[in-house]
Amino acid sequence: MALPRPERLVWDLDWNLLRTFVVIAEVKSITRAAERLNLKQPSVSNALRRLEDRVGRRLVERDATRFELTEVGRLIYEQGIEVFGAISQLPLLMRGVSDDVTGHVMIATASHVVSPLFDRALSQFHSNYPRASITISVAPSAEVTKLVRERRASFGICLVSQRDPAVEYQMVYREFFGFFCGPEHRFHGRAGLTLADLRGEPSVSFQTDHISDALRPVALLRSEARLNADVVGVSSSLEEVRRMIVAGLGIGPLPLHVARRDVADGTLWRLPPYDAPPAIDIFLLVNPEKAMNRAEKALLSGLQTLISETPLEERIYDG
């Protein structure tokens, strides 16, 4: 393949080819890419071949059992994400151009972000800028990080297992997890239980409840309690984990401050350990390379100010 002159590539490149390649790289399959793009498979294969011809390099190594991006393929995928991240911001930026602060703010959060600090930031923002609008999308923490990195979210709030060098982090609050059971469970209402009583119990949990993931402290406690290794149900949503606990599928972990009302109402019952529950920090994620409209800047600045002005001890929610 002949290498194109660098100054000609930007003018000669069909940007649809780049869009198609980004999808191919994300789903790691020509067939699945065709399904996502609503195109026929030969059209997607042809688009990949045309892009490879245009850049003069192979972008994908594939056979019946393997699909891998080449080094150049990974580079073009990363730059493609940057391009489409920038383009996706244009409507938001244009909506923010007026005398008033209007514009739209896209927030990505994990499902169990329950914080008076965040609520207060939203309330103050709406009071100050009533013409601005907000979308809050709930997703697993890894997806929140991805949305922030790719500049498809104004900012994110979630758990963090591994830090992304393209993202800046600020701790919002610290929460503590405990085990709970539902009203029909035989442990409900029983005092004096110990961690040993939980041995072999069926359980439900979050998808990130793994030794190598964001809920590592909870996973370690699960191992210490020797719960049944076969988890009955998992979800990335706090509401659904709570639903499974209440429905009696098994015991499960929830943030103490989130479960407090259910415990008071008798819907949930706190189980051991009662001392030194596992702590999880929740972070604000920001991509410093994202161009923000005025609404995004205003809400982010207000939240960051509240975090900075609130002492750490007031941002520790022990339930």
UniProtKB/TrEMBL annotation:
InterPro entries: HTH-type_LysR_regulators, LysR_HTH_N, LysR_subst-bd, WH-like_DNA-bd_sf, WH_DNA-bd_sf. One of its GO terms (molecular function) is DNA binding. One of its GO terms (cellular component) is cytosol. The keyword Transcription regulation applies. This is DNA-binding transcriptional LysR family regulator. It comes from the Bacteria. CDD domains: PBP2_LTTR_substrate.
